Fold Mitochondrial resolvase Ydc2 catalytic domain-containing protein.
Amino acid sequence: MRNCGLTQGTGKAHKLAALSNFIWSSQELARRRYLDLHQHSPPTLSEAHIELIPEEVVSIDIGFRNLAFAHVSRCGRVLDWRRVELLAEANFEPWTLASVVEKFVQTELPVRPASTCTYLIEHQRFRSQGSAAVTDSVMVNNLIEALLYANLRHAGAHIVAINPMQVSTHWGLIEGRGSLSVESHQSVGDKAEPPTPQRGKARSKRSEEGHAGNVASLIARLDGILREQKQQTSTQYTLIQQALGKEPRRKRTTKAAANRDLDVLIQKGSKSLGTLRETRRRQIKKERTISIVQSWVLDSLSSSKTLTLKPGSHMKFPAAVAEMFSSEKKKDDLCDCLTQGVAWYSWQRNVVDVLDQYGSTNTTA
């Protein structure tokens, strides 16, 4: 399920039911797309299943101030890729929001039929990062998400909601799966041994101080990881500018975290330490996402190399698109929508393998 981009949920029965329903719906979608494109029943199951992978995807990273989308072909060519400001500030007026989203879909977003294109929309949450509050910006983003669905469905588009956690897992951006793995940094999300039961206020206080010390040490390690990652993305940026025949206007701002004294960190208290730890995790994830995409752009700009996602599939960035990306100041939103689209294509290839192995499309229906 993870390799197909599915949320696993809990319980064996739930997983089996979800996977069974997914296989059935995927078979039907593949069959409909084949009939729309070829006007006759597929001669073999594999020929029907391959049509599940659309010719194009439009991957959308939602934001009212920084919405980004990437239009990518099945062969890996980036057809369109940009960031759009829908609103200068949060707005809850229904008429304004409806008009802005409708204009965006009609004038800027590529609109393609369901037989050849799939729209990937990052699923929004009302609460994230452990926050109890629901901010204005989060509420506006959820409204924009619903309006995008309404406009695209009216246009006959095929839409898929994407869980951003699945994308992070695919690229190894979250703890325990690569970049922030507990094996290399003993850190994020690592399950420590259960604490020894404490008695009395003195032991409780010592236990709290010990926990604060562990979190402070983790933050210090994350600071080092962040400095190294920002240095890498800065170097990649310079190489991209050179490949485009340009001198970097300025060195990419890194604002790396300074070395911290553990005693000073511990004095901040558990709540402040927890907030700082989550901030560092998000910053590292953002930098690593940018680094992934910048490596693709560099490979594409090289005359002798292309990035291989799978045999026969390569990322291709036209010069104008690469120049846009190099000059864009808000690269993280562009990178989020592109990595989402590329991950989904990879999942779809895995889905086709599953269908060929376990599925049985009724080709006479």
